[in-house]
Structure formats: structure tokens, C-alpha cells
Amino acid sequence: MFVDRAFITIKAGDGGNGITSFIHYKGKVSGGPDGGDGGKGGDVIFVADKHLTSLVDYYYKTKYVAENGDTGGTNNSFGRSGKSIVLRVPLGTVIKDRESGSIIADMFTDGQEIVVLQGGDGGKGNARFATSRRHAPHFSQTGEKTEAKQVVLELKTIADVGLVGFPNVGKSTILSKITKARPKIANYHFTTLSPNLGVANYYDNQFVVADIPGLIEGASDGAGLGIEFLRHIERTRMLVHVIDLSGVEGRDPYDDYLKINAELKSYSKELAKLKQIVVVNKLDIYGAEENFKAFKEKIGRKHKIIKVSAITGHGLDELMKAIYETLIKLPPVKPLEFEEFKYSKPDRLDYEIYKEGETFIIEGTLVEVLKRNVVLDDMNSLAYMHKVLRDRGIIKKLREMGATDKSTVIIGGEEFEFMD
Q1: DSSP code at position 129
Q2: Are the C-beta atoms of 98 and 152 separated by less than 8 Å?
């Protein structure tokens, strides 16, 4: 099954907790703090892999979580870091933040690697909180918690040449003849349900050809299969527009030509500007030559026209030459240009205070740090929190907002009685 779009949830590993521990040896019950730090959580890493052609793996499994860091140990031992999770995707996969639609990465080259989510930092053990005035801290820090994120994986095929046209015009047959690709070929509509790639060899030169599933009128608005695959043409350097001259489908060749180009323009004006070679196929069928005269008269000299019979192979050498001579004049395929979006950890501590009656609620990144650092049943730890609140001007701000000794202050879901 071919899948070119997937919605998945990813989460980096949480940091491991630091521990509260004291050295114990014969003759001395407490010889000082020796609680070690927790390990760092695993990252979520994406890697581009040229051997993959579909996002089908992400269709069946949609949640990916990296390993959490381990808790710190005694004797100042660090906890083991969590294992990162590596997600492999086909070349051309664009990773987007689902909420904003912003592009995180364009996985364009084989082996390209990007850390999309960083694991949480491990918490500090109580040995880290020992000072000249605080010899035996009875508190430690919890590991940093990470948030799950939803991302969109969107595959945009990378190819030099895109074969476009209505269903059953012979694109798959042409691909099989000019490359080593072996697409499924049959005489019915929508045979090609996914883009097929092949490498064409022209003397000592190579170029990649993509057989894009047949478009129909209204494809850019969601009709048929077209809307699902028009995105794959965006990566191509040029188009080969295949037209069925036989008329056996009951369609007019020139009308087909106009409709396909209208769909390309409707989907993307840039797409419509791509260099295009028109290939008129099925010349081996009775009446095709007569249809060609009318078609050529209507199309004029807008595009180079090449007559072929994909079944017999007639005209394919000329087609290969025309494609090569066009490609050498065109710039190479490039990654998307975009403003990179990153999931980043807060680089500053901020807060907001909300008042509800006599209750004051403090929220923000500062609160998240306090939740990790403060142990509620330890006086030293609470004193540390009070100092932070005073140093940050929060105590003063609460007074200005009307807080009194009877007021309740909620920090990180915990209730405290206000004291200046």
C-alpha cells in the first residue's frame, strides 16, 4: 500500500529524577549528600532513507515515544540516558507541525538527520545543592517532563522528469520502456495508484523519471486521485505531457491537453510554468495519424511535440534525447525554501499572575522550574522557592494586586498561604 501523507504523535523521553541520598559508613550515619543526577531523556530523530518509497509504516503506527532517562543513583552516580528513537522516512518527506502547518524539515538527501524533539534534562541530585551554608540538603530535582507533539509527514517525490496526463494514456508503459522500472500496466483507468520512479540512462548520463498517477478534470479541487498526487509533481524539473492520440477513450486529444494544463495551473502557478514536452502516444492505432494533424495545428509551437508508440518503442529514442537536452539547460532540483520551525525549550523564565477573588494563580515557565526544584516537605527547599519569588519580584507584584495574609496563592497546582 502506498501512503504519501501521515499524521503521527511524537514525544521525547522525560529526564530521570535526581535522588536524595547520604553517604553511610561505619561509625557515621550521615556523611554528606551523595545523590546523583537523573539521566537525559531520549531524542526524537528523523533520518532520510533512499531505500524507502512510502510512509506506509506511519499509517499503521501513529505514536512514537523515546525512552525516559533513569533515576540517579547513590555515590553521585548518574542515571542512564534514555535511548533516542530514530524514524526513517523516504527522500522528499516534508515534516510539518500539525497545529501551525509550519515546516520543520525537508528530508531531501540520503542520510540527512534532524533532531525534531530533544529529550528532557535529568534532575539534579541533592549533592548538587550542597553549599557552604547548606551541608545536608534533603531535597533533589525531578527530571524535565516533555510534551507530545503532532506532526504531519508529507511525501513529495524527488524526480527530474514527471510524466503527466489522463489515466490510461500510456505513461506507465513509457516509464517501463525508458527505465528499468516495472510498474503495473493494464488497460483500465487508475492502474497507477502511486507514483512510480525509474532511472533512465542516456549514454553516460542518468535522470530520474516519475510516473504520476493519471489526473482528471477537477483533480486540483479533489476529484479522482489527482489531488493526492499533484504534490509529487512539485519536485520535478520538467514535465512530459503524454496525450492519447487514438481516441479510443472517446476523448479529444487537444481537449485533454487543455484540461491537464488547467489542473496544473489551478494547483500551482509555478507548476504550470515548468518546461514541458508533449508526447503524443498510441500512433500504432488506426486513426491516430489523422488525429495528430488536427492536434498539431491547434497546439502550434508552444511545446516540442514528439510522436511515439510506447508499445512498439517507436520514437522513444527521440524522446530520451529531447528530455536530456532539456534537462541540461535546467537548474537541479533543490530543497524547499522555508523558514525553519523548531520545537525549542523555553530560553527564559516568565510568569503571569491571575486573580480570582482572594486567590492568586501563578503560571508560566518559572512555575514549571519551581515544580521540578521544590520539595514541599523540606524547609530548605521551601525557603529556596520563597527566595526565588522575592528575587523575581513576584511577592511585590502580589502585594500590588491586593494580596494579604489571608490570601491563597496557587503555584503549580499547590495552594500556599501568602506571606511577605
Answers
A1: G
A2: yes
Q: Is 171 exposed, middle or buried (0-12, 13-18, 19+ CB in 10 A)?
A: buried
Give me Rg for the CA atoms of the chain: 32
Contacts of 43 (CB under 8 A, 6+ apart): 12, 13, 66, 84, 85, 115, 117, 118, 119
Q: Which three cell numbers stand for residue 222?
A: 479533489
Report percent pLDDT > 90 for the chain. Answer: 32
pLDDT band at 247 (very low <50, low <70, confident <90, very high): confident
Residues near 37 by beta carbon (within 8 Å), at least 6 away in sequence:
16, 18, 72, 78, 79, 122, 123, 124, 125, 128
Strands (E), 159-236: 161-164, 196-202, 205-211
- DSSP per-residue letters across 247-269: -TTS--HHHHHHHHHHHHHHH-H
State the Cα–Cα distance between residues 295 and 247, nearest whole angstrom.
12
Q: Which amino acid does the sequence have at 103?
A: I
Cell of 410: 496557587
pLDDT at 235 over 70: yes
Task: Give residue-wise pLDDT tens across range 187-217.
Answer: 444 444 566 778 899 988 989 898 877 555 5
